Structure formats: C-alpha cells, structure tokens
Amino acid sequence: RLASWLEIEKQRCKDSETTYKKLLKDLSNQHSKLLERHQKCEQELRQKNEALELRNATLKKSIEDAIGEKARFEEKVSRLEQKFDSAWDGSSRKVMGTELPKPRN
User: Fold this and answer.
1) In angstroms, rounded to a whole number, what is the distance separating the alpha carbons of residues 78 and 85?
2) Distance separating alpha carbons of residues 81 and 78, to the nearest angstrom
3) What pTM was computed for the model?
C-alpha cells in the first residue's frame, strides 16, 4: 500500500510540475505580448506627441505672423492718417483734386 501511495503522490507531483511549467510558459508568452504591445503604444504616443509639437509650432508661427501683419497694417493706417492730416489745410476740402469729408476731430 505504501508503495502504491508513493506512486500516486509521485504522479501528482509530476502532474503539478507539468501544470506549473505550462502555466509559467503561458504567463511568459502573455508577458511578452503585453511588453510588445506596451512598446508599440509608447512608439505611437511618441509619434503623436511629435506631430502635436509640430502642429503647435506651426500654429504659434501662424499666430506670430498674424500679429506681425496686424502691426504692419496698423502702421500703414497710421501713416495714411498722418498723410491725410498733413495734407488737410483746413480751408479747402480738396486734396490732390479729390473732395474729402471733414476730419472726424
């Protein structure tokens, strides 16, 4: 009986070891897949981040250009207003042959 019991326990141990090795192999495979997926996600995030940084830089440049263009336009308007004011003599409403409205002042 003891020998029979020992054989049964030996077989159980072998079965447990087989099950353990199979589970360990499955976990190792799952870990590898998860690690690969994680690396892929990290790469995608880096690429998206780089694209967003480029987009931000482009938008910032566009805004800076628009601000510069606005400043140039305002400067032109100011020069035209100065020319108008200096051309106005107060007695004549004609400047360079064109009838002008009275100044807003």
Assistant:
1) 10
2) 5
3) 0.54
Evaluate whether 20 touches 26 at the Cβ level (below 8 Å). no
- 74 CA to centre of own chain: 33
DSSP one-letter code for 25: H
Give Cβ neighbours of residue 84 (< 8 Å, ≥ 6 apart).
Answer: 95, 100, 103
- DSSP secondary structure, 5-21, as one string: HHHHHHHHHHHHHHHHH
Q: Given pLDDT bands bounded at 50, 70 and 90, which one contains residue 1?
A: confident
Contact in structure between 99 and 93 (CB atoms under 8 Å): yes
Taken as a whole, the chain contains a residue count of 105
How far apart are alpha carbons 84 and 78 in whole angstroms?
10
What six digits make up the tokens of 50?
């780089």
